[in-house]
Design the sequence.
């Protein structure tokens, strides 16, 4: 194995006002080093002006998402040795405005999340004395969709979101499904009102890339298609049944 | 709720018109969307065939002659390829959209896909029997 690998890192300095450029750095190639370790090496030893986000280094905080050789990846879980001999192109996540270097503006995603009401909604019956109980089977129903770490890789992989930023997007819909499938929740109706809009589930054309890139196997594409079935059923019911019977 | 403020000097990467050529998966997706046009053409072709059959032997024969002209044959071959693509991708995607349970167990994806091919085989066999009997 060669002892170093070249990173081509996208640099954007808003004060200069020109488009991003690629800057090259040679970093040590070690078996256990991730792309993020390479960036940290650059920051510590080669160029302290490089900006990027990270925190946990273990695929849990969801903050280190970037485009690695054109594919959305968690850089802490993508290993340099697998990309050898390089060069490795590291760019900010696509489909988001770039604030500086590898840092993107995630404000749009933050605005969208609360719109699907990702919390347990109850009718106004009296609260139980203890917890709401749930069986392991009931937990399994939604567990997969609850594994999301909000890394937004699915948004950066989604061409629909790239073309129409109003699309509410994969992770938000998967999260809505997570609460809909929760046996303790009664909020499906309220969420449907949001998701049945054009920018809701119907924006999705099932490219399926969100599911491919998701590091947590959430399968947002599956969640969206299941939501479409649900929305379609509701529309048919609304058409056929009198108000009271729905 | 107040919208989060967008950074004034943030850089927005333009989306290229040819984005669907950037990745294999995007390209397959674009082809699957395109295949709907060809599916529609097969429907039209089938309606024309039925109409010709209904108008008697002469009409039917001239329809067959027209259907045998090279450009119609080529068009129908291309259509066949797209319809097969449409079918295979559609069958592969179904398990993601449907959760089927049998006696409390979730039916695995391969079983859902396989059952669609079985369904296709049964319907095709019936049509062949109907046409050739
Ligand atoms: S669904 Fe997957 S890719 Fe999307 S934000 Fe959640 S963990 Fe990340
Ligand atoms: S640094 Fe937390 S997910 Fe990569």
Sequence:
């Amino acid at each position: 194995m060669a002892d170093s690998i070249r990173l081509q890192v996208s640099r954007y300095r808003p004060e200069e006002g020109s488009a991003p450029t690629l800057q090259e750095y040679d970093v040590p190639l070690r078996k256990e080093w991730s792309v993020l370790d390479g960036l940290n090496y650059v920051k510590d030893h080669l160029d302290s002006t490089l900006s990027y986000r990270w925190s946990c280094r273990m695929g849990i905080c969801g903050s280190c998402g970037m485009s690695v050789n054109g594919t959305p990846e968690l850089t802490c879980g993508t290993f340099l040795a697998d990309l050898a001999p390089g060069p490795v192109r590291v760019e900010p996540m696509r489909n988001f405005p770039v604030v500086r270097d590898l840092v993107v503006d995630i404000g749009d995603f933050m605005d969208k999340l609360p719109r699907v009401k990702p919390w347990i909604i109850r009718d106004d019956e009296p609260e139980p004395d203890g917890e709401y109980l749930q069986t392991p089977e009931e937990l399994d129903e939604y567990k997969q969709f609850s594994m999301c770490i909000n890394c937004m890789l699915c948004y950066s992989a989604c061409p629909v979101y790239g073309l129409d930023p109003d699309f509410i997007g994969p992770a938000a819909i998967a999260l809505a499904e997570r609460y809909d499938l929760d046996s303790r929740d009664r909020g499906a109706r309220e969420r449907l009102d949001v998701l049945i809009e054009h920018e809701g589930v119907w924006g999705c054309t099932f490219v399926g890339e969100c599911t491919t890139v998701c590091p947590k196997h959430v399968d947002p594409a599956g969640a969206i298609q299941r939501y479409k079935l649900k929305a379609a059923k509701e529309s048919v019911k609304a058409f056929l049944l009198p108000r009271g019977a729905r | 709720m107040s919208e989060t403020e967008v950074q004034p000097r943030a850089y927005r990467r333009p989306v290229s018109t040819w984005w669907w050529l950037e990745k294999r998966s995007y390209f397959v997706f674009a082809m699957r969307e395109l295949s709907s046009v060809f599916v529609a053409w097969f429907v039209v072709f089938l309606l024309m065939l039925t109409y010709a059959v209904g108008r008697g032997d002469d009409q039917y024969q001239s329809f067959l002659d027209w259907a045998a002209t090279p450009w119609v044959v080529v068009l129908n071959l291309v259509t066949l390829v797209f319809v097969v693509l449409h079918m295979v991708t559609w069958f592969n995607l179904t398990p993601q959209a449907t959760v089927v349970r049998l006696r409390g167990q979730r039916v695995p994806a391969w079983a859902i896909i396989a059952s669609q091919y079985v369904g296709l085989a049964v319907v095709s066999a019936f049509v062949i029997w109907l046409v050739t009997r």
Remarks:
- Chain A has ten helices and seven strands.
- Chain A touches chain B through 35 residues (CB under 8 Å).
